[in-house]
Specification:
The complex is a heterodimer of chains A (313) and B (47). With 313 residues, chain A is an all-alpha fold. Chain A has 2 domains: 170 residues, Tetracycline Repressor, domain 2 (Orthogonal Bundle), CATH 1.10.357; 142 residues. Chain A has 15 helices and no strands. The longest helix of chain A is centred in the C-terminal third of the chain and has 32 residues. Chain A is flat and about 50 Å long. With 47 residues, chain B is mostly helical. Chain B is 77% helix and 0% strand. The chains are: A mainly alpha (313), B mainly alpha (47). Chains A and B meet through helix 1, helix 4 and helix 6 of A and helix 1 of B.
């Protein structure tokens, strides 16, 4: 982007669609989806209008975090093929516009959630956005290969926010959902990072395959997968999931480990790339199905009680 | 007015409309949420 073009673009201002792109619509979908599960899984019935209002606030809050991330990371984004088409590297939106847009939406979404639903969920949303922007984006991402491990806490928060919106409190069930996403994030991102390690290296992001090599990353992926598979079944023990969930999560977990082992054993050339790519694709499907089954069970009233609840909160 | 100015005006106009729609939507949402949260208590007062 030349100096002249930048000034030209600045004077024009972005199109509406460019601003929508700053919200990271695909991330927003997963956030809203997992938030919805937390909301619906809660034992307290919330009025549908309030549920929609809560999800809207969570969606906008997620978008705000995305916009602020794109504001801060535009120097990295323009050096990676995956992100070079984002609005700021393309010169469609200026950094200043993205910062203002993200900050207004962050404050607005938290304020609206607090006013319309409750302040516990609003506080958790604020914590999530703050953690993602200040801790993950500004600090961890450029500093340590553990960036996405710790930063994954932000992405794992939506079920807790949804649960808090419905109940006004926190319980063990949403914490289990939090842990599932938290443990799922490293193998998910590292599978992608193996495929993109050259780009991350060029952009100066210390992803694990860049700092410790692909083989070490494969070991770590396998360890996290072995943790994730049993953890994915725990909602059936805490009374959240039913028999359908218990069986599905067991099968899906075994498949996750199978993909991880395949990735762990396939280390050379195009096959290694393909194995990592497959694991990445499957990891998205895994998390989506896990949460979708919880939703389906709740919808048909067949959730919980697969095993006697081992604990009650 | 130059092409550049016209393009600037066009984009600003579209952004303004988008912001207006969002604000109108928020007004409607806050109204409905207020009704929902008040519920039956709306009638619970001395007349």
């Amino acid at each position: 982007m030349s100096e002249a073009t930048q000034t030209y673009q600045e004077s024009l201002g972005g199109e509406v669609g460019d601003f929508l792109e700053l919200l990271k619509p695909r991330v927003m979908f997963l956030v809203v989806f997992t938030g919805l599960v937390g909301l619906v899984a809660a034992p307290v019935q919330i009025h549908p209008v309030l549920a929609i209002a809560a999800l809207l606030c969570i969606a906008v809050g997620s978008g705000a975090a995305g916009a602020l991330n794109m504001w801060f990371d535009s120097d990295i984004d323009q050096r990676m093929a995956r992100t070079a088409s984002r609005p700021i590297p393309q010169g469609k939106v200026t950094e200043q516009e993205a910062l203002t847009f993200g900050a207004v939406l962050a404050v607005g979404s938290v304020g609206c959630l607090g006013l319309m639903v409750n302040w516990l969920s609003a506080g958790l949303l604020a914590l999530t956005i703050g953690f993602y922007v200040f801790v993950y984006t500004m600090w961890l991402k450029r500093w340590t290969p553990q960036n996405i491990v710790i930063g994954g806490a932000a992405g794992a928060m939506p079920p807790m926010i949804g649960w808090a919106a419905a109940t006004g409190s926190i319980a063990l069930e949403p914490i289990v959902l939090f842990l599932i996403i938290f443990i799922w994030t490293p193998p998910h991102f590292w599978a992608l990072a193996i495929c993109r390690s050259k780009e991350y290296e060029r952009a100066g992001v210390p992803m694990l395959p860049v700092t410790h090599g692909d083989d070490h990353t494969r070991n770590q992926i396998l360890i996290y997968s072995l943790l994730l598979a049993p953890l994915g079944c725990v909602p059936a023990l805490s009374g959240l999931g039913g028999m359908l969930y218990l069986i599905s999560s067991a099968v899906l977990g075994i498949l996750f480990v199978a993909f991880a082992i395949h990735c762990w054993r396939t280390r050379d050339g195009q096959d290694a790339y393909r194995a990592a790519k497959q694991l990445f694709a499957y990891s998205v499907l895994y998390l989506f199905l896990l949460f979708a089954i919880l939703l389906v069970e709740k919808g048909f009233g067949i959730g919980g009680g697969a095993l006697p609840a081992l604990w009650t909160i | 007015m130059s092409d550049e100015d016209e393009e600037f005006e066009r984009r600003r106009h579209k952004r303004n409309i988008a912001i207006a729609l969002v604000l109108a939507g928020l007004v409607v949402l806050f109204f409905i949420v207020t009704i929902v949260r008040l519920g039956g208590n709306v009638a619970n007062r001395a007349i």
